[in-house]
Design goal:
- It is a single chain.
- Strand 1 and strand 2 form a beta hairpin.
- The radius of gyration is 28 Å and the shape is rod-shaped.
- The protein has three helices and three strands, in the order αααβββ.
- A three-stranded antiparallel β-sheet has the order 1-2-3, with helices on one face.
- The relative contact order is 0.14.
- The protein is of the alpha+beta class.
Amino acid sequence: MATGIRRQQARLRALLAHLSRDEGWAGTAMLFMATVILLLVGFQTAWWFAGYNVAQTATQAAYTDSRAYQAPPDAGKSTAAQLIAGSKKVLRNPRITITRGTDTVTVTITGNAVALLPGIEAPPITYTMTGPIERWVPAP
């Protein structure tokens, strides 16, 4: 047992002696890793904003179709789905919700951005637009 402990102590002394002769290469490796992580965070942020832009554009198009005079309740759903499908999978798992009341219509699109690293998800993307429904008003 004592020889095992002495052997471990000798290995530890050898490792400490090796690390004392490092000459700064460990700092270079850490700088390289920090640069790679910053690049991945930057690219992930860019993908999130691209997904947000797709959600915003699809919501505005669906709102325009849904608020039209005498439009059916799900009028903008196909327009939004086509825009999202044409965006090359920038917005994953999209959910399109259109709620049409008597005077207003609300369109909400939610989804997720593309993940560069598996297991690390960006915050979900949600964009909502609410406004009045077009209606015919007789001339006074």
